[in-house]
Write a structure and sequence with these properties.
- The complex is a heterodimer of chains A (126) and B (236).
- Helices cover 87% and strands 0% of the residues of chain A.
- By secondary structure, chain A is mainly α.
- In chain B, α5 (130-147) runs parallel beside α8.
- Helix content of chain B is 43%, strand content 15%.
- The two termini of chain B are 33 Å apart.
- With 236 residues, chain B is an alpha/beta fold.
- The mean pLDDT of chain B is 90.
- Chain B has a seven-stranded mixed beta sheet with strand order 3-2-1-4-6-5-7, with helices on both faces.
- The chains are: A mainly alpha (126), B alpha/beta (236).
């Protein structure tokens, strides 16, 4: 095994361990947990499966085979970032709606309180 | 069998069920000593109004949050208002209220903390397609593997929970596939689980969301992964 493969294997195993601990501590929603476990596992597999990397490097024209993993990781990272941007947009919309609904609710509560208070005052005066 | 009166509520999660929610609420309210809390998950029709008119307490989510959050809202309401048992009942009319007494009995007797209404304990009721039967057998196997217990209908939404289960669920409710995930989570935490046979009524309208081959297989894979995640998690 080349040295770079060993380092890669240790790093990706470390990542898998971190992800599993996060899952255990409920820091990740189910779908993200699944996503990250598969990603970490894929990295572990790639660090060990030398012949696959060599084949990929040949096709892509990368001179030093183990380095072909870098563009793969970058591309994957970009896709993840895009996915999270979409998710954040959805949450942003929901948050705005909630903020507005709360403002309207508070206003309703205030006016109900005022009605109740003025009714009580009127009864006392009669 | 009851030496004290149990306060019971049926939590009915609903999203755009204006057509059926009125009947669902009335059937329970008129025939049983059970309160109804309809949790409206941001419906765009007048589900809330109809439910209120039929005699239910209504919680309305300002935005759509998904079935997991919706049912949990109902359970939070149940806890806050001193209920001893909370049932989960679908808003589309598939769950027959006459089984409610069977569902709550083991909890009242102190034999179980959660009771699941299973369509497949007795093999009667509406006929299952081949894919559905494959799915049932598959999940039975997964549950046996992960918990050692026999669970015959993990996707049934017709169930009853005792107070200690509710207190746990108030802090731990799954998001993605709540029906199967909840059972696993409760079993893992050591709550006592029982199944009773129920017969569900035919879907009143529309097509099942899991028809064909690809969709059920896709569903089975996703649920299994979610169950594995729950198996790895530590719940307080």
């Amino acid at each position: 095994m080349k040295r770079i493969q060993l380092i890669s294997f240790l790093a990706s195993s470390g990542l898998l361990a971190i992800v599993l601990e996060m899952v255990r501590r409920k820091l990740l929603k189910e779908r993200f947990a699944i996503l990250w476990i598969f990603s970490a596992l894929a990295l572990v597999v790639f660090s060990l499966w030398g012949s696959f990397l060599e084949w990929l490097a040949n096709i892509a024209g990368v001179y030093y085979a183990p380095l072909v993993i870098i563009p793969i990781i970058i591309f994957f990272g970009v896709l993840l970032a895009l996915y999270f941007s979409v998710l954040m947009t959805k949450h942003d919309k929901q948050t705005r709606e909630l903020i507005q609904k709360m403002a309207l609710l508070e206003n309703e509560v205030e006016s109900l309180k005022k009605d109740k208070h003025s009714r009580a005052v009127n009864e006392n005066n009669d | 069998m009851r030496d004290r009166k149990f306060k019971i509520i049926a939590v009915v999660p609903a999203y755009n069920e204006a057509e059926t929610i009125g009947n669902v609420v009335r059937e329970i309210v008129m025939n049983l000593d059970v309160d109804v809390c309809v949790v409206d998950d941001g419906s765009t029709d007048n589900t809330s109004q109809i439910a209120r008119n039929a005699g239910a307490t209504v919680l309305r989510h300002p935005v759509n949050a998904g079935i997991g959050t919706t049912v949990q809202s109902g359970f939070l309401f149940a806890l806050r208002n001193g209920y001893d048992i909370a049932l989960q009942v679908d808003g589309d009319g598939q769950h027959d209220p006459k089984y409610i007494s069977n569902l709550i009995e083991p909890i009242i007797n102190g034999d179980a903390d959660v009771v699941n209404g299973s369509r497949f304990l007795n093999d009667i009721g509406y006929k299952s397609s081949f894919m559905r039967r494959v799915g049932i057998a598959f999940f039975r196997f997964i549950y046996k593997l992960l918990t050692g217990k026999t669970v015959t209908d993990c996707t049934s939404g017709f169930r009853a929970f005792g107070r200690n289960a509710l207190e746990f669920l108030a802090k731990n409710y799954p998001d993605d596939y709540p029906e199967p995930e909840v059972i696993l989570t409760l079993l893992k935490k050591g709550f006592r689980f029982k199944e009773v046979p129920v017969v569900m009524r035919e879907r009143q309208g529309g097509k099942s969301s899991l028809s064909g081959i690809f969709k059920p297989v896709n569903y089975m894979v996703k649920v299994t992964l979610a169950l594995l995640i729950d198996f790895l998690r530590r719940n307080k």
